[in-house]
């Protein structure tokens, strides 16, 4: 799952919890009221006060609202292109790059890195340190 999916799932979970809390509060309030037997027409009548007190369905944020809150994830293709450019500019061989990856992350290929590790490898290559 991507970070955006994780964030959206977390926000949906939080909204669900808020909804459940409001529902519990309203249920508690309705239990404290004296119970009277109602006819089916009273129950389904929209002017019934008990029906008006039901919580409304929470409005979930739309995707554009979520995207404005969540920072954009780095594009792996752009990071990989920048890494390739640095490797060529610094004349670093494939074997040297693989050795650096193994020393830093215990992997031999950038494909096995997550987004954060890929960005760290890019920063490592940008530093004046020798690979």
- In helices, the fraction of residues equals 55-70%
Summarize the helix and strand pattern as letters: HHHHHHH
Number of H- or I-type helical stretches: 7
What is the SS-derived class?
mainly alpha
| Major sheet summary line | none
As residue ranges, the low-confidence spans are none
Shape, principal axes of CA atoms: rod-shaped
Determine Rg (CA atoms, Å): 28 Å
Q: Kindly report how far apart the N and C termini lie.
A: 32 Å
Number of strands: 0
Share of β-strand residues: under 5%
**Multimeric state of these chains?**
single chain
Mean pLDDT: 77
Q: How many domains?
A: 2
Q: Quick summary of this structure?
A:
The chain has helices at 3-32, 40-44, 49-52, 63-69, 76-89, 94-105, 115-126. With 131 residues, the chain is mainly alpha-helical.
């Amino acid at each position: 799952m991507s970070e955006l999916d994780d964030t959206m799932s977390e926000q949906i979970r939080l909204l669900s919890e808020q909804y459940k809390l409001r529902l519990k509060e309203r249920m508690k309030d309705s239990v404290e009221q004296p119970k009277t037997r109602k006819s089916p027409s009273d129950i389904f009548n929209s002017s019934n006060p008990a029906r008006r007190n039901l919580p409304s369905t929470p409005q979930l944020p739309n995707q554009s609202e979520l995207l404005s809150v969540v920072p954009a994830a780095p594009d792996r293709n752009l990071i990989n292109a920048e890494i390739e450019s640095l490797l060529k500019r610094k004349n670093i061989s494939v074997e040297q790059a693989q050795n650096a990856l193994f020393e830093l992350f215990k992997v031999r290929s950038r494909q096995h890195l997550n987004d954060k590790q890929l960005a760290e490898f890019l920063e490592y290559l940008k530093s004046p340190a020798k690979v």
